[in-house]
Amino acid sequence: MNYTENYKGVKIDVQSPNLDVSQEIQSEIRNCINKLAKFTNDINALDVYFKSEGQGGTATTTVGMRVGIPGPDVFAEEKGENWVGMLKSVTDKNIRQIQKNK
């Protein structure tokens, strides 16, 4: 499922092949933007990638997030099992990169 939205002037592009993005996840993505906006006002775009590979006990899930800001974009990725927890983690990683680049 691919999903695009404009939230507070930020273009959100979510790509999740073979997965449905629930309302809870969409809401959490908006929360991520609100959190990122506290550290930079120049967010143009947010790309989120959900990926699930394998089956059963060997399944791996990954979330990647690219924050489009002036200058070089920041990107973070996290592997785990909880989509919301992984979103929070990649948001925190991107915040650290934004703070480092200021």
Automatic annotation (TrEMBL):
Superkingdom: Bacteria
InterPro entries noted in UniProt: RHF-like, RHF/RaiA
Pfam families: Ribosomal_S30AE
Name of this protein: Ribosomal subunit interface protein
Organism of derivation: Belliella aquatica
